[in-house]
Design a protein that fits this description.
heterodimer; A: 254 residues; alpha+beta; Sulfite Oxidase, Chain A, domain 2; five-stranded mixed beta sheet; five-stranded antiparallel beta sheet; elongated; B: 253 residues; mainly alpha; Fumarate Reductase Cytochrome B subunit; 10 helices
Amino acid sequence: MNQKISRRKWIINGIVTAAGLSGLAVAARLAARYGLVPPDGVGVYGAGTTLTYAAQRLLTRHSLAREFPRSQISRAPFANGKPPELEAFKRAQAGGFADWRLEIDGMVAHPGSFSLSDLRNLPVRSQITQVTCEEGWSYIAEWIGTPLASVLEVAGTLPQAKFVVYYSIDKTEWWDSLDMADALHPQTLLSYGFNGGDLPVGFGGPLRLRVPRQLGYKSVKYINRLTVTDNLRAFGKGLGSAAPEGGYCWYAGI
Amino acid sequence: MPDSVYASEFGASSATQAAKVPGAAVRHTVSVRVTHWVVALSFLALLVTGIEIVISHPRFYWGEEGNVNIPPLFSIPIPASRASVPTGFNYTLPDQNGWSRSLHFQTAWVVVAAGLWYVLAGLLSGHFRRNLLPSCADLSPAKLAKVFVNHLRFRFEGDPHTYNPLQRLAYLLVVIVAFPLIIWTGLAMSPAVTSTFPFLVNVLGGHQSARTLHFIDTLFLALFLVVHVLMVCVTGFRNRMSGMITGKSVEKS
């Protein structure tokens, strides 16, 4: 009696295990086909990173990050880090950033560059969102800028584009990339204004990419170049941004 | 003789089966044993990586926002892994956030899967109803006080086939309050998750409230772990470890 039950149990366990494993394999294939595997979805933490990215992408493709009333704007925002020590940046700052250019290249019909006043002539969006740092701190501010989607539209993004890579003037230190869901998201801004004024240098002025649905480190400061691509393998170590090279996740939705 | 929990592997009444086939009854079912150890290992990984993440900003706030320009609700008197945090210490610890965050979230997936398995198996097998749900009589203050005082005197008596009322309350508190709350407050800190489900963070009072509650809940779970391990040690370590590993007691009951 006991032996029979035991044999039946082993058979059932075997079937469940086999079904589970093949289910996983099918899920992995589907995830790869629908672009649900992040560029750093490899290695020891590849499974967790992929699960998080895939789950959050499926849940949040069109959702808007929380916006706040003006009364909740932080009276004590925190400007993390220091402006770049580069000579080029200091010169630009001395000139009031009048010569700051945002280059755009890669898979676009019209590669070229935008000055800050070119950007100001494109559609404007203002939003009061929270900057949430992976370290745990946060602040709420008003961000004014051009939706990245507008810049991509003017540049004529090709249909095969899958990622937008963005570089800080300090591009060896800070570069990152977004999938098209976040790149075309209405709240993803090339931000030049902050709490009603110009964006201060401490907070990323003259131009910062704001991605409010991801943690602060995706909102790279001092942006001067965009590259549209369908594949991230040729960029850096091929993990999608500088963050995974330092042990951090490319996708920072949590 | 320490009290023990007899749960039949095949769903039959445990006491009957133990009487009919001595030694065939198991103390814990396969589901309880597997999920117990998966959750135990996961909790340790989550605790260590959680501590590493807290070290980068060992200050806690209430409401939406909180940073070094805002006075904290409370802070932990340890050095930080970021030079920008004023801690009163003159040195900065190494940054371990990268791998800590990756391991924290990967383990969170494991713990959620194991938790769902445990709850589903517990409901279907009747384990929750038989062994976790306290009876009304159990909940009378006089009886609870008596069990509690006996525990403090290291006297553990009661039905050897199931949990005593204090154990039931402790396990239920972990299973239906502390564990779901730790997942909820964790998700409430995600700007992507709250873009779809803003109420997750709004009802808690804000992003920083969620973070503070996540920390307080961790303290509670860590306290539970300490008491739990202590009780295992004082009520027969070998027997209880054997029960949770092989499913059977070392000693005959």
